[in-house]
Amino acid sequence: MSRLDTAFNIEDLRKLARKKLPTPLFNYIDGGADDEINVRGNIHAFDSVRLVPEHLIDIANIDLSTQVLGRKISMPLFLAPTGMNRLFHPEGESAVSKAAAAADTYYCLSTVGATSIEDVAAACDGPKCFQIYVMKDRGLTREFIQRCKDAKYDSLALTVDIPVAGNRERELRYGFSTPPKLNFAGIAGFAARPGWVYRALTNPKAILANVAHKIPEGSSQSTSLMEYVASQFDPSVTWDDLEWMISEWGGPFAIKGVLSASDARKAVDAGVSAIMVSNHGGRQLDGTLSVFEALGPIVDAVAGECEIICDGGVRRGTHVLKALALGATACSIGRPYLYGLAAGGEAGVARVLEMLRTEIERDMALLGCRKINEVSGKHIA
Question: Is 44 a catalytic residue?
Fold first, then answer.
């Protein structure tokens, strides 16, 4: 029996990831901003409501499929964008995208991924989204959009909650900054995982693949790319930029990072296809609403005019059902699949999706629902 076979929930995979990763990298995945109130709160908020099952319903055939961003997916759960996946396993974003395609669900590649738009398209024949920022260099933003069109991505998602980086103290304690300036604790953390160090030395370096062409040949890529991307985040972005991007893309378009009902209305008026309700996994402004707390008011404000994605804190199938009961179209996950990736590459990500799919299907049966659209407000209290 492999170690993955002994993992029965996301927390088990988190523990496996902790054993495999150097401490600075594990804390990069696991940590958040300031006191990490939101990291914990995103999970705990799901416990603020209880499920109300109904019985004597024929649940012999359960259908988990739903429609998200123009594509039918096999379950109301997909993989959100996360950066630099090859730091956690040499297979990186290619492994994650393949696991998503095998599970017949969406994969969203990050602008700051370590695998290019084109390489992910070649590896993944499933639904694909590209997470994008409005850069100071608008030419680069246009380039990303055109590359996604050429590579036949299905949708784009604009992240709006990172005008500046959050205060992530776990990373600072190890010198895991942008660019990295490792201190003694950070160096010791890497030295304690010789297996990871060996793989890092014997595999191609993890770089920000989608902007690698912006750095002069011969420069220190790992440092220069991080500095370049950090310098490109534009704090002057407005709703006009969102409308411009939607027009440039011309297809399904999501906005990621919305927590207020007023912003949700503005997003609908701008023409988005979906709103990803998110606080960036607790990595930006600490002490905000949890994603689950923000979900209900946003659903009410949007009134069915676009899809709503619950992005944050999902660790169980029951969490997905609670989000659906509040009116979400689907949920997305980040940390859980990174734990799986670190624990076992593509097989680890597949294990995450398999576990959560099994939980959602079982919990649907126990709740008395046969289809996703049957889960409603009557099922929570």
Answer: no
